[in-house]
Amino acid sequence: MADVVDNAENSVTTEQTLESVIDAFNPISNKLNWLLVALPLAVMFNFQHNLTMAFLFSMIAIMPLAFLMGKGTEEIALRTGEAIGGFLNATFGNAAELIIVGLAIYAASNDPEIVDTMVTVTQASLIGSILGNMLLVLGLAMLWGGLKHKEQTFNSDAIQMNGTLLLLAVVAFIIPSALQYSGGTFSDVENISHYASIVLLIIYGFALLFQLKTHSHVFATEPGHGHHEHPTMTNQNAWILLILATVLVAWMAHILVHSLEAAVVEWGMPELFIGVILLPFFGNAAEHFTAVIVAGKDKMDLSVAIAVGSSVQIALFAAPAMVLFAWALGVPLTLEFGMLETAATFVSVLVVNSILADGKSNWLEGGMLLGSYIILALAFLQL
């Protein structure tokens, strides 16, 4: 069967490949693509130095571009299986977020006047991604999947490992905060953050080895989960779409970071709310759409792998990697995210682990996760 697919893909002409990729951007085939009109508007307003409007439209443009990244990774995932597919979706779904926070740290290293704002937004964005994926994305997926199917099942063994990894990450977040509130200096907090980040990255590497190599059978999809689908794009098309969408996301992220300070001042909106709610919501749109769509198809293993796997990746890879990146550039970014942010993450991990423990889901559990997310969003809006 694989040989047939490979032969079919080899026979595709360059013209057909280009047509397939261009069609992915067609607003007629996908209504969300109408939001791509925000891309040239963001460029125009940025050129005119209207930074507030540039921030707004660049943030909007990231949503359909993130969806296209999700489409490319979903097509690739159909050829790799749901364990690796979920990892790919989580990785490229987080690409927009990593680009945004990476550019924010770089901008802070070049302009001392915006260091405080960029550090706050970066920390808030990382926590917001973890919370958004665990509560919003997984909640929407369970709600939508539960409305279409009375009860859905997934591999609870794989989820328990991811849940344990999230608890480990929370420990790494709590210790710097506890050290600071116990009278430790900022230098002490920086040091423990750097060492903890190195440990988290090592643990994440071991987790990947465990998941993809030594114990891959634990993460294999159980028979009868979901419906078998055939790719609608060739592997080459999917990778071209993925790379093109990623480049455009990076462009929009550059404009967004450049205009963020102006938006904070003019809108008078709390930096924490922008970082925890707005940026992750638009930046993680790929996970939003992909996880919800596959949940509706009764492919909860893939849906949960995307949502929870993405949170694990942010907590054990993105956050420590950004701390070390900032350390190299001389930017004072630590794992001390603040009392509310750390408490919200800890409680969210406990709630998600409790809901996923039985390996089953329904629409009510999805509603509970969404309710938790709304409460947290209102709390951050008050700051």
Q: Can you walk me through this structure?
A:
It is built from 15 helices and two strands. It has a single domain, classed as A middle domain of Talin 1, CATH 1.20.1420.30. The longest helix has 34 residues, at 115-148. With 383 residues, it is mainly alpha-helical. The termini are far apart.
- CATH fold-level label: A middle domain of Talin 1
Work out the radius of gyration.
Answer: 20 Å
Largest sheet: spatial strand order: 1-2
Please name the fourth-level CATH homologous superfamily. NCX, central ion-binding region
Described by strand count, sense and barrel closure, the largest sheet is: 2 strands, antiparallel
Sequence of secondary-structure elements? HHHHHHHEHHHHHHHEH
CATH class: Mainly Alpha
- Helix vs. strand class: mainly alpha
User: Mean pLDDT, as a whole number?
Assistant: 84
Give the termini distance in whole angstroms: 57 Å
Features:
A middle domain of Talin 1, two-stranded antiparallel ribbon, 383 residues, 1% strand, 15 helices, mainly alpha
Describe how the helices and strands are arranged.
Layout: H1 2-10, H2 14-24, H3 38-47, H4 51-80, H5 82-93, H6 95-110, H7 115-148, E1 152-153, H8 156-181, H9 186-214, H10 235-267, H11 271-283, H12 285-296, H13 300-329, H14 339-356, E2 360-361, H15 363-382
Helix pairs in contact: 2-10, 3-4, 4-5, 4-10, 4-12, 5-12, 5-13, 6-7, 6-10, 6-13, 7-11, 7-12, 7-13, 7-14, 7-15, 8-9, 8-13, 8-14, 9-13, 12-13, 14-15
